[in-house]
Design brief:
Strand order of the largest sheet: 1-3-2-4-5-6
Number of helices: 8
Radius of gyration: 32 Å
Shape: elongated
Order of helices and strands: EHEEHEEHEHHHEEEEHEH
Mean pLDDT: 82
Helix content: 25-40%
């Protein structure tokens, strides 16, 4: 979604960027106005980068207005001074503004020059973009490198190895599923979706190489969602369903498993089905994605606005319909009378049917 807003930098901002890299400017605030990236404010260098950090950045942060902050460090690389790219998105900012700034962040980074940006920091509170917050960010970056996805998958497989107890007295087998490693580019796009930079990610199984691969990240509306579902191949989809419910605006991440029936081979159907649960576990517990709903479909046409609303917010039946006793056949014969048992009360019969005698 970062390339979909169409917002570009103004000519004045481009000219200022060219001048600001000489070393006199310490901090630049960039705003979005009239569908353009514009210069909000700039402040020249006063002291060292650490002395200037809180003094110069904090006054630029507004309580309900997102913005971008470019902060110059005192270190240099082959391209010149190094900068820190700070994205300010306060909790109380309007949702539309948050989405607009999130979708334009990559454009600004590319326009300024990604080679000079040393670190990127995202903040929703003032503490996130303070000097202490920045140092905590650096500490997390310098911490021991986490496991690669291949190592994480290997560890995950060892913990969830198939436990099949087969013997004369065996009652069942336990098989949690088949775990495929997820490719790095697919994992990166899932993270971008988590951060609000994408609203749709499609994943597939590379059966030959036994991997989960990235297929599609096109910006997708609810109306366009059915067209993203292949009619002859299975797929996994992650979709940010933007909607309102009872007056509240919501952005819910939905996991969709599409399997177009018998148009796929038996092997493909089995592998997609077996890999689904381990993939969901990776998305939720390894990549930190909050999946509000998991849906299985056979046809993309099912994915309508009403269908998704009903899946996420099922309608409750407040009134339980009483059971209606069906009428008997109209051509049945005279009612049969049985003998009364001792001590049994005589049942009143108001029917106008003819009563026969007991033989």
């Amino acid at each position: 979604m970062s390339h979909q807003t169409g917002i570009e930098a103004s000519d004045d901002l481009l000219a200022f960027f060219a001048r600001s890299k000489e070393g006199e400017v310490r901090v630049i605030r960039v705003d979005i106005e009239d569908e353009q990236l514009v210069l909000g404010k700039s402040v020249d260098t006063v002291g060292s980068w650490e002395d200037d950090f809180d003094k110069l950045i904090r006054p630029l942060l507004m309580e309900k207005q997102p913005c971008y902050i470019l902060y110059r460090l005192d270190t240099q690389n082959d391209m010149g001074y190094e900068w820190v790219f700070l994205s300010w998105s306060p909790d109380f900012a309007p949702v539309r503004q948050k989405m607009l700034y999130a979708g334009t962040r990559s454009t600004l980074k590319k326009t300024f020059g990604g080679g000079q940006i040393k670190e990127e920091v995202f903040g929703t509170t003032v503490e996130d973009l303070s000097l202490d917050g920045y140092k905590k960010h650096l500490d997390s970056q310098e911490a021991p490198a986490p496991l690669t996805f291949a190592e994480e998958e290997l560890q995950f497989i060892k913990k969830n190895e198939v436990n099949a107890e087969i013997g004369v007295d065996s009652k069942h087998q336990s098989m949690p599923g088949v775990t495929f490693p997820i490719s790095q580019d697919a994992a990166d796009k899932v993270q971008e979706l988590k951060m609000g930079e994408l609203n749709y990610v499609q994943l597939s199984l590379d059966i030959k190489n036994e991997r989960i691969c990235l297929e599609n990240t096109d910006d997708t509306s609810t109306a366009e969602l059915p067209s993203r579902v292949p009619t002859d191949q299975a797929r996994y989809h992650l979709f940010v369903f933007k909607h309102t419910h009872e007056g509240d605006y919501m952005e819910s991440i939905v996991f969709i498993y599409s399997m177009p029936g018998y148009k796929c081979s038996i092997k493909e159907r089995m592998l997609y089905s077996s890999a689904k649960s381990p993939l969901v576990d990776i998305l939720e517990n390894h990549l930190g994605l909050e999946l509000i709903k998991k849906i299985e479909i056979s046809d993309g046409a099912e994915l309508t606005e009403d269908f998704l609303q009903d899946e996420l917010h099922p309608k409750k039946n407040a009134v339980k319909q009483a059971f209606a006793k069906p009428k008997g056949p109209s051509n049945r014969g005279p009612r049969r009378i049985t003998k009364q048992r001792p001590g049994e009360a005589v049942e009143n019969n108001n029917d106008e049917e003819e009563q026969g005698s007991v033989i």
